[in-house]
Amino acid sequence: MKKLVDCASGFVHGTTCGNDGEFYVVTDPIDNAASLKPGTLRHAVTQTGPLWITFKGSMTIKLE
């Protein structure tokens, strides 16, 4: 999957796009601003450093 970075075009061409980042899998569609539960999208976006954020399956995430 990380080879997708080599295909970047447009305004992202030439960026690293998190190429050296770890994979983070969102497994829980719940969003709770008061609790950064691992496995949620909110937890993923609060991490430092580059990440490849993927989703375990089809889910609808209603942000608070």
TrEMBL record:
InterPro entries with a match to the protein in the record: AmbAllergen (IPR018082), Pectin_lyas_fold (IPR012334), Pectin_lyase_fold/virulence (IPR011050), PEL (IPR045032)
Family classification: Belongs to the polysaccharide lyase 1 family.
Keyword Signal in record: yes
Taxonomic placement: Eukaryota, Viridiplantae, Streptophyta, Embryophyta, Tracheophyta
Keywords, sorted A to Z: Signal
Name assigned to this protein: Uncharacterized protein
Keyword Signal: yes
